[in-house]
Amino acid sequence: MGLTGRATALLLEKCREENPLVQCITNFVSMDLMANTLLAAGASPAMAHSISEVESFVELASALLVNVGTLSEDWAGGMKLAALTAGRLRKPWVLDPVACGATPARTSLCKDLMALGPTVIRGNASEIMALASLGGERTRGVDSSHPSEAAAPMARALAARQGCIVAVSGAVDVVTDGTRTLLVGNGHPLLQKVTATGCSVTALIAAFVAVAGPEQALEATAHALAYFGVAAERAAVDEAGQVRGPGSFRVKLLDELDLLCAAQLVHASRIGRST
């Protein structure tokens, strides 16, 4: 799979054709935007989180997303069971370690989930640094206090150790398998002013990896980030060229995710290799 905008467009087209079901165990804050992001990309969301049914939903799904944003003991158990099931069935699953490092309980759960072999881990720089150091890095919540570039060495080390893909979101997204590192230059600062955008792009990664195949998870992750970033760039500016506010931006983001065509992605997608 290439890294061009044409490759981004082809993978989006494949997602819309295959309509993968993504089982999302995620936080209350992100459910609405995440589900609608998946629908806009042609995927189908399943938002079930009860421990009594997560195993059944993973069996039906093409991919699994585990987001640890709002925790409870029941949800934590469901997350672990779902990840175990995905591993048993050899289905791709993506971990979003929201606010890893903020509390001992959260960090411990992220460590346990990481041991279950995620296909992709996606977080901001602070979360990835905390996960890589197993709690040595303290975060204050979901916001990152580090640029993505600062986390790149730890992301590469984590990816190599885990045998997975690690993606660090930021002004420039860093995606690595421990050996190869890709940089995605799409996005807009307004994404930081709308909650659940990071959570939603993680679900999009799960959908793209599902249709590309785990062996192409590095490229699929980069293409998902580029697609979401291009939509954000287009949503941020109105017809008069003025930057929108976060409320109208959120609505327009879903419109752009749904309406983006191949020609627009070919022109705007920016994925490169780190030197």
Automatic annotation (TrEMBL):
Pfam family, one: HK
Gene Ontology biological-process entries: thiamine biosynthetic process; thiamine diphosphate biosynthetic process
InterPro entries assigned: Hyethyz_kinase, Ribokinase-like
Signal peptide interval: none
Enzyme class: transferase
Organism domain of life: Eukaryota
EC number: 2.7.1.50
Keywords: ATP-binding, Kinase, Magnesium, Metal-binding, Nucleotide-binding, Thiamine biosynthesis, Transferase
Listed cofactors: Mg(2+)
Reactions catalysed: 5-(2-hydroxyethyl)-4-methylthiazole + ATP = 4-methyl-5-(2-phosphooxyethyl)-thiazole + ADP + H(+)
HAMAP family found in the cross-reference section: Thz_kinase
The protein's name in its UniProt record: hydroxyethylthiazole kinase
Species in which this protein is naturally found: Auxenochlorella protothecoides (Green microalga)
